[in-house]
Specification:
Blueprint (H helix, E strand, L loop, with lengths): L1 E3 L3 E3 L3 H8 L13 E6 L3 E6 L3 E11 L3 E6 L7 E10 L2 E10 L3 H27 L1
Length: about 130
Amino acid sequence: MKATSAPLQIAGNPATAYLKISNFSSLASMMPPQVQDFKATEDTCSFNVGGMAQINMRISQKVEPSLVVISSDEGSTFPFTLAFHFTPGDAGFTSKVEAEVNVNMIMAAMLKPQMQKFVDTLNQQIKTFCEA
């Protein structure tokens, strides 16, 4: 199952978003309310989503300042990837967040609305952070 946020045009420098996203220690303030027990180091983090799933993740790819890919880590309830794309433009940059979760069709049907809300909220938080 895949969820992709709508691209957002953001006033500012993509390096600001990249630096925030590429260090898990700085992400706690961007987590939506469904995320509980957030713990992080620079390259790894763990949290619980709505009491339903334990998520452990690591940064698996960085391309400064345009891409950060986060992957599930050992102990996660299910495998996933989360990609943050920052595309420079004339008046700032465009941000897009993609999540891909490997679950069965029944779970996918239940999780799809929450995943869409999650990627949309993360992308909006990036915009808010960069334009503050």
